[in-house]
Every structure is written in structure tokens, then in C-alpha cells.
TrEMBL record:
Name of the protein in question: Glucose-6-phosphate 1-dehydrogenase
Keyword Metal-binding carried by entry: no
Enzyme class: oxidoreductase
Glucose-6-phosphate dehydrogenase C-terminal domain: residues covered: 189-484
Binding, NADP(+): 46, 85-86, 148
Annotated InterPro entries: G6P_DH (IPR001282), G6P_DH_AS (IPR019796), G6P_DH_C (IPR022675), G6P_DH_NAD-bd (IPR022674), NAD(P)-bd_dom_sf (IPR036291)
GO molecular function: glucose-6-phosphate dehydrogenase activity; NADP binding
Annotated binding of substrate, by residue: 178, 182, 216, 235, 337, 342
Keywords assigned by UniProt, alphabetized: Carbohydrate metabolism, Glucose metabolism, NADP, Oxidoreductase
Annotated family: Belongs to the glucose-6-phosphate dehydrogenase family.
Native species: Schleiferilactobacillus harbinensis
Length: 488
């Protein structure tokens, strides 16, 4: 395994994301030997920390990680802290001097990763200063990592994209959607393109509908401030759900490389037409959770939430793709907080047999085949088929083939952020989003958002915590003579 060489500059080095995700991810690469002698990390934030204190923070973030205390200390010694206000140009000069010094000291070949682990309002100014104060290295690679949220509508996303594009090319920009780093989301391509059995059935001719559920059982927790400005539609649908839709429905890419995959995703997303206001009312549902004894507060009673907030904590909707492969196949999506159970899953519901000759139980129809991919918290898949009931009966009844990914193997598999960090070092953009994909999804989301913002509380459905969301979400499918496969 060859060691990677790079300098990481983490803006927001004292923040939650850095401590919970980024440091453990870098350590995971160190533990595997992918980072060894030739790497260094500069963490920047406003607080006046010493390097020693920073090393303690790094080690604290590794509690529970494998490896000895000695290994963790050695790892932490690659970290340098710099107190830095990202809006102050002079601070970038100090940063550049430190970067150049570390580049020589660790023989980093001029490779630089600029990781923006800060509030998005700072992204443009960081990118601008990195360029104007000459932090871009002339020798190795320069890669800019952009966290979510990428804008709050198409206009702000475009502005952000234009701003960062002044300093970095599309090739150098890595937009994070950590769902793309999840094991089962990465399994979609092999399932579709390495199994003719599924690949041939992957169209409107055989698939009746697709259901995507990203359900959380917790409430808004400590993210209230952000959540009040976002809501479930922006927080989950625009990014994660749209990326999953793209992976499920894109045409086979010409090659297995980032450019071909981005082109295929872009093509299918552009076939999802933004809805008219009438279509929004017909095809999308929004809800907000209510509390109860032993179950927690209502959303409107939570700290830092307006008592008349109309922000949605739940969204369900029907997405239609206007192309030859998918015309007429609804993609039902839903996501919400305080639901009955936590689970992210995809259910592909195939068309039932139309000319059944076999006896069935209670004279009902033969059940459809359903392929279910469980993204989390477990990881695996089920395929529901039909067989003969055991015993003397000839009746057809469904059974399930289960494939749970090996827990020991999974435990050894890297967390999403570790995989993404490795991809960044490899220059592999497969698990990152292209601007065109975000633009398409924002156009779709904006059309819904505009209607909901005008409607204010009208149409906001309240649902009890611990349920699967408002009744309207069930009605949405019932109108199409369908139902949600997963009932929580
Ligand atoms: P945070 O508030 O915990 O950290 C923000 C960091 O920015 C701190 O280190 C703070 O010192 C620094 N900072 C603020 N103003 C500064 C300034 N003027 N100059 C220099 N430093 C300054 O935020 P977070 O939760 O770590 O989130 C960071 C980014 O990651 C956000 O874009 C967020 O949406 C995204 N994100 C976070 C998570 C998560 O689990 N925390 C998950 C997904 C995405």
C-alpha cells in the first residue's frame, strides 16, 4: 500500500465535524498505512489554542479507535494549530508560511487539501483568500472540499459555485454528500451493472415503483438553529435523496469513471421536471412532529424553535422521471424526524405477474417481488420472491432471500468520511457531486419550496412522534393504489 502525501488545511479545526468525523477519518487512513510519515494537518479556528492542546483534542477524538496510545500520539504530532479569522487576509499569509514550511519538513510534494468544515457563509471568502494570498501550491494538487449545505436555493448555490470557481476549477472542487460514501449506496452500481438478472429488469417494463425512505427516530436535537432555516426538504431531499435517485435511475455510464458517472447522473436528473404549484399540492406532503408524554417535546416547543414555526420535519412526495426508461414509474420518497424507527432504505417494487395460473392464499394476487437495500443502521439487502407454501398446499406465498453484510467485515470497513478522504487523496471524484447535479436538484426543490413558503401553515400536517408520519403520506400512495412497503 503506497503512502499518500498531502497537507490538509482544515478550516473549522475546533468544530464538531472536524472532531467527530474528520480526525477519526484521517486516523483511520493512518492506521491502515495510507497516511504515514509524509502528511501534516493544519487546523485553523478562531480560538487561541496551542499545538499541545490541539494534540490533546485530536487524541480525545480517537477514543475507542483501534491502535495503541503511542500510535495515536505519533499521529497527533502531525497536527498544527493556527488561530485564524477566515475573513482576515493577513492571517492567510501566516498560514501560507506555515504551509510552505510543513511542505518541506514532511516532503509533501506540494499536495494540498483545503477542507472547509465551517458554516457555508464563509466558503466563498475562504476560497477567495486561499487564491489571493497564494496558498495554492504550484507543484502538486490543490483540492477544495465543500461541506453541505451547498446553498439554500438555486440562486445561492449558483452564487457559491461561481465564487469558489473563481479560485478552483470544477476538477479541483469536491462537494461532499456523505451518503455517496455509504456502503449500500456504493453497492447500487454493482447490483445494477454486474447482475444481468437485475440489469435487464431495471426499467418501467418490470419495475412498478421505487420507494426511498430516510427515517430518523430522533428530533431536531442541538441542530435547532440551522434546522429552522432549512427544514427536511433542504436538509435531506435536495442532496441525499436526489443523489440516491440518480444512482438508482441513471443510464449505464460509458465507463467506470467519475466523468462518465457524473454525465449519466446529470442526464437523468435533468429528466425530472420541476412541478407546477398544482402538482406540488398533489404530489408532495409536509409535516411537523408533535410531542407527548415520555416521547419528547413538539417541534414548536423545542429550544430555539419559533412557537409558530412552519418548518417541516417530514416530507413525502412522488418524483417522476420523464424519459423512456422510467416514464410512469413513480419514485416515492420520504424522510422525517421522530419517526417510529431509524432506518434508511430503498425498496424497488417490481410489477406483479399479470397472468398468474397458480393457486394463491385466500385468493389474493401473487405478491410483487421487492428488492430492499438497507443503508443503515443495519447494512444489507432482501429480495422477496414467491414460492410454494410448505406442505400439502399448492398455494403460492412470498419468502425472502436475505443478505446481511458480514458484521465483522463491516466493522473493519471504513466509515463514510474515511472513504471520502481516501478518494480525495486519490483524486477520485466518483463519490462527490458535480455542480450540474446540484443545479438540477435545486430547480426541483425551489419549485416546491416556493409553494410551501407561500402557503405558510396551510397544508402543514402535524404527526405524532413515534409514528411513520402524517396520514397524508399514506394517502399519497393510496391514491395510486399503492402503499409504503416499510411500515416502521
Ligand atoms: P461548528 O460550529 O461545530 O464548527 C465551526 C468551526 O468554525 C469552529 O471551529 C469555529 O471556531 C470556526 N469558526 C467560526 N467562525 C470563524 C471565523 N470567522 N474564522 C475562523 N474560524 C471560525 O460546525 P460543524 O458542525 O463542525 O459544521 C461545519 C460544516 O460541516 C458546516 O458546513 C456543516 O453544515 C457541515 N456538516 C456538519 C456535520 C456535523 O456532523 N457536524 C455533518 C454534515 C455537515
Amino acid at each position: 500500500m503506497t503512502e499518500k502525501r498531502a497537507l490538509f488545511i482544515i478550516f473549522g479545526g475546533s468544530g464538531d465535524l472536524a472532531q467527530r468525523k474528520l480526525y477519526p477519518a484521517l486516523y483511520g487512513l493512518y492506521y491502515q498505512g495510507r497516511l504515514a510519515k509524509h502528511f501534516a494537518v493544519i487546523g485553523t479556528a478562531r480560538r487561541p489554542w496551542t499545538d499541545d492542546h490541539y494534540h490533546d483534542i485530536i487524541k480525545q477524538s480517537l477514543v475507542g479507535a483501534p491502535g495503541s496510545a503511542h500510535q495515536k500520539t505519533e499521529f497527533a504530532e502531525h497536527f498544527y494549530y493556527q488561530s485564524h479569522d477566515v475573513t482576515d487576509a493577513a492571517h492567510y499569509v501566516t498560514l501560507r508560511d506555515l504551509a510552505e514550511k510543513l511542505d518541506k519538513q514532511y516532503a509533501l510534494d506540494g499536495n494540498r487539501v483545503f477542507y472547509m468544515a465551517m458554516a457555508p457563509r464563509f466558503f466563498a471568502t475562504i476560497a477567495e483568500h486561499v487564491k489571493s494570498e497564494q496558498l495554492l501550491s504550484a507543484k502538486g494538487f490543490n483540492r477544495l472540499i465543500v461541506e453541505k449545505p451547498f446553498g439554500r436555493d438555486f440562486a445561492t448555490a449558483k452564487q457559491l459555485n461561481d465564487d469558489i470557481s473563481q479560485a478552483f476549477s470544477e476538477e479541483q472542487i469536491y462537494r461532499i454528500d456523505h451518503y455517496l460514501g455509504k456502503e449500500m449506496v456504493q453497492d447500487i452500481m454493482p447490483l445494477r451493472f454486474a447482475n444481468p438478472l437485475l440489469g435487464h429488469a431495471w426499467s418501467k417494463d418490470f419495475i412498478d415503483n421505487i420507494q426511498i425512505t430516510l427515517a430518523e427516530d430522533i428530533g431536531v436535537e442541538e441542530r435547532a438553529g440551522y434546522y429552522e432555516t432549512a427544514g427536511a426538504l433542504r436538509d435531506m431531499v435536495q442532496n441525499h435523496i436526489f443523489q440516491i435517485i440518480a444512482m438508482l435511475t441513471m443510464e449505464k455510464p460509458a465507463r467506470y469513471d467519475a466523468a462518465s458517472i457524473h454525465a449519466a447522473k446529470r442526464a437523468v436528473l435533468s429528466a425530472i421536471k420541476p412541478y407546477t404549484p398544482t402538482q406540488v399540492h398533489d404530489k408532495f406532503v409536509r409535516g411537523q412532529y408533535l410531542g407527548g408524554d415520555d416521547i419528547g417535546l413538539s417541534y414548536r416547543e423545542e429550544d430555539n424553535i419559533a412557537s409558530d414555526s412552519t418548518v417541516e420535519t417530514y416530507v413525502a412526495g412522488r418524483v417522476d422521471i420523464d424519459n423512456d426508461r422510467w416514464r410512469g414509474v413513480p419514485i416515492y420518497i420520504r424522510t422525517g424526524k421522530r419517526l417510529k424507527a431509524k432506518q434508511s432504505r430503498i425498496d424497488i417494487v417490481f410489477k406483479p405477474t399479470s397472468d398468474n395460473i397458480l393457486p394463491t392464499v385466500n385468493d389474493t394476487h401473487v405478491a410483487p417481488n421487492v428488492l430492499t437495500l438497507i443503508i443503515e443502521p443495519e447494512t444489507g439487502m432482501h429480495l422477496t420472491l414467491n414460492g410454494k407454501e410448505i406442505g400439502t398446499s399448492d398455494a403460492v406465498s412470498p419468502f425472502t432471500l436475505d443478505h446481511a453484510l458480514d458484521q465483522d467485515e463491516l466493522a473493519k470497513a471504513p466509515e463514510a468520511y474515511q472513504r471520502l478522504m481516501l478518494n480525495i487523496l486519490d483524486g477520485n471524484k466518483l463519490t462527490f457531486t458535480h455542480w450540474a447535479e446540484l443545479a438540477a436538484s435545486w430547480h426541483f426543490i425551489d419549485a416546491i419550496r416556493t409553494v410551501w413558503d407561500n402557503d405558510k401553515a396551510d397544508g402543514l400536517a402535524f404527526y405524532n412522534s413515534g409514528t411513520m408520519g402524517p396520514q397524508q403520506a399514506d394517502d399519497l400512495l393510496a391514491r395510486d393504489h399503492r402503499q409504503w412497503i416499510w411500515q416502521g
